Predict the 3D structure of the following.
Amino acid sequence: MKRLFLLLTLLLGCIGAVLAQRNISGVVIDSKTGEKLPFVNVIYVDGGGTQTDFDGRFTLPFKAGRLRFSVLGYETKTVSVKEVADSLVFRLKSLDRSLGTAEVTGKKTKYSRKNNPAVELMRKVIAAKKSSDLHQHDYYSIDKYSKITFALNDVTDKVFEEGKFKKLPFLKDHVEVCNETGKLILPLSVDETVTRLIYRKEPKSEKNIILGQRSNGINDLLNTGDIVNTMLKDCFTDVDIYNDEVRLLQYPFTSPISSRTAISFYRYFIVDTLMVDGKQRCIQVDFTPNNPQDFGFSGSLYIMADGTYRVYKADMGIPVRSDVNFVQSMRIIQTFDQLPTGEQVLVKDNMLVQLHITKSAGKFQVKRDTEYSNFAFEPIPDKTFKFKGETLTSANAQMQDEHFWQEHRADSLTKSESTMKQLIKKLESVKGFKPVLWVAKAFIENFVETSVNPDKPSKVDIGPVNTMITHNFVDGLRLRASAQTTANFNKHLFLKGYIAYGFKDEKWKGMGEVTYSFNKKAYLPREFPVNNLTFNYSRDVMSPSDKFMPTDKDNVFTSFKWTTVDHMMYYETYKLLWDREWENGLRFDVQLRTSKDTPTGHLFYQSLHADGISREAGFNLPYLRTYDLSMGLRYQPGVKWINTKQRRIASNNDAPIFSLSHTAGLYNFGRADYAYNLTEAGVYKRLWLASWGKMDFTLKGGVQWNKVPFPLLIMPAANLSYIMEDNTFNLIDNMEFLNDRYVSLMYSWDLNGKIFNRIPLLKKLKWREYIGCNVLWGTLSSKNNPFLDKNANDQRLLYFPGNWGDDGFNYQSRVMDRKVPYVEVVAGIHNIFKIFHIEYVHRLNYIRPGTQKWGIRGMFRLTF
C-alpha cells in the first residue's frame, strides 16, 4: 500500500497538481445548542453532495440550485443556493424521539440494548440469514460483472486556466461529471472483469472462472504488472454483509448483521416504515459503531416489512470520525432480490470512495460497480472444478470483443472510460513527461529502466539504487553497481548480478545469477507462481547475522547499526536451486550449495587444544568449507501476491504459513570438512479481534543434530539495524546465543487505536498502539559445548567468537540457560502523521557488561 500511494503521488505530479476551485462551504449546527453536527448529508437536490466532517464543516463545488441537509435525529432542511459563498452557517432542528425504554439525560439520549425494539428486530434479521445461504444447494453458478474506475477528483475549469494542467489542454476533453457527487473527475484507469462463480457441496469446492478481463489507463505507464488495479481490488473488495466480517481496505470490518459481534459492536435505531423504490414496504434501521473511530460501518438497512426479516437494501459507509486513513467518505449501496427458490441474494453492489492522500497528489475517487446475475442451481460437471487454485483465467479472457462486454454490462462505459487508451497516448507524447516518469518509477521501484520509450520497453534495469553507496566494518566505504534483465529480454531466461568495491579492504566483490523460468513471465522470474531453476555465484563479505536480513545485505538504510559489528567473514558460494510453487499456496525448493567462509575483522576460527586459545595465527583455521543439500516445504493457503521490481508483496497477510526445511551437510564430498543435519519448522498465524485490532504469532523451532563448530550452530534471527524487520530479535547481538536446539515465539498486537481513540485530545492524532514480546528458548547440548572439559581437545569444535583485550581474551556468553528463556518486550506507536511507526524495545534478562538493554526502532509504514 505504501508503494502504491507513493507511486500515484509521483505519477500525478508528472501531470500537475489540483488547484483551488469555486466552492460553497459552511458549517452545520444544532439550532438550540449551537453544537457542530458531524456526518450530516449535504446534497444537491438534482444530484451530487458530501457529508460534514468532525467539526460540522463541508465544502461543495458551487452550482445554482437547492441544497438539502439531512441527518438522523434532525429535521431535513432545504435551502436555495444562488452564488458562491463560504463560512455559511446552517441550523438544523432536532427531533424528539425515544426508542422503547431509552431515557433522555441532558442533551443526549442514553443508548440501551435492553428492551430496545431496534435491537430485537436486528436479532431476527440476523437469525433469518440462514434461509438465504446458497451453500444449502448441491450446486450453484452465478455470473458476476465488476468495474473499478480510478479517477482524479475535484477537477475544475480553473485547473486548466491557471495550473500546470494549462500545458495539457487535451486533459479537459477527458474530464466528466460524476453523477453521484456532482464533481468533475478525470478517470485514470478502468478495469472490467466478468467472472463465473461456481460451487459444489460434495466434495466441497468453490471456484472462480474469469471469462473476460480488460484494463486500460495508468497501468500502461508501468512495467511491473497490474499493480494499480490489483491494489485497488485488494483494498476495495466486494462487501457481503451476510458474512460476519467484511475484508475492506485490508482490514476486517464487522458486518451490521454479523451473527457474532454485530449487536455488541453497533447501535441500532428504527427510523421509519416506508416504501423503497416505490415497490417494497420496508423498515428503515439506522446503525453506527459504538465508537465512531472504530473500523466499522454506519448507515441504513431497509428490512422487508413482511415478516421475513430479509434485507432489501443497504445504504452505508464509514463514519466521518472513523480512524481509517486517507478515506474522506465512502458510500456503499446494495440491492437485494428474492430468487424463485426463495433466497434473498445480492444483485447490485455499488461503492463510491473519496480519497485524499497528500496535498501534492490531490484527491482521488474509486468507484466500484458490481452486478450478479444468472443464478443457477443445476448440476455442474466435475471436470469444471478440476483446475489448480481457486481462480482460472480463460485463455480468451483478455481477447473478448465489444459484443461480449455489452452483453454483460448493465450500463455502458462513459466517454472518458472508453477513451482511456487515447488519454495515455497523449500523455506519453507530452514533451518532458517520459523523463519525469522515468525518475519517479526509479525512486519508487528502486530500479532504473534503461529505456524511456514505451515502444521499446526496458530489457535491462539498473539497481537496486539503495545499494550503490554504503559502508561496513570491513569494506569501509563501499560502491556497488547492479543490474538485472527483464522479460522484455527473454520471457524464460533472466540474468542479474553486481560488482562492488570496498575502499578499506581494497577488494572486489560480486555476484552473478542465471534463472530459467519454466513458466513464461510478464516481467521478472519471481512472479507467482514460480517454477525456476537458478544458478548463483557470490563472492562478498557479511556478518553472520546478515543472513536473516530480508533485504539486500548492503542496503544503505540498514547499514547503520545499534552495535559494533566487527565479526565478519568473506564468503564464496555456488548454489543451484530449483523452486516450485502451486496455485494452492504450496511451495517446494531443493538446493545444492558449496561455500567457503573465511573469517575477517575480529572473527577467527581456532580449534580447541590443550594450550587454550592463542593469538598465534598458526592455530587458526584459514577457512571453513561446506557442501550441503537442503529441501524445504512452505504452505500458505489463500495467499495473494503483488509483483514489483524489488520484490513481490503478499497482499493477504491473513493467510497462515506452515514451513518445514532440512539441510544435510555432505561429509567427505569434495573437500567438505564437516557433516551436519539441521531441521527447522515454523508456523505463522494472524488473529483478528474485531475492534481490538489484530494479533500475529510466529512460532519456530530447530535442531542441529550433529557435533559441529560454532558457525554451523543455530544463531538467533538478530536484527542489528535501527530499521524494524519482521520476525527478528531487536536486542540480540551478532552471534549471541549459539544453540543446537531452539524454540522461538514472536508475538505482536496492533490494537488499531482502540485505547488512544478513547482518550480526549489524543484521539484526534489518530495514533495506534502496538505491543509485542519476543521469546527465545535455546540450549547447547554437551557435545557442542566447547567450555566442557570432555571437549577440551576436540579438533572438530572451535572456540566461540570474542575479542582480544589488554587483559587477554574476552568473550560474551554464548550459552543460554535452558531453564531461562531470553525475553524482550516492545511498545510502539504507529500511524504517526499516517506514515511513521516507532517502537521502544526493552531486553528483560541476560544483562551483562556492555549489553544494550533498550533501544528505539522505526520504519515508514502506510496503512488505511
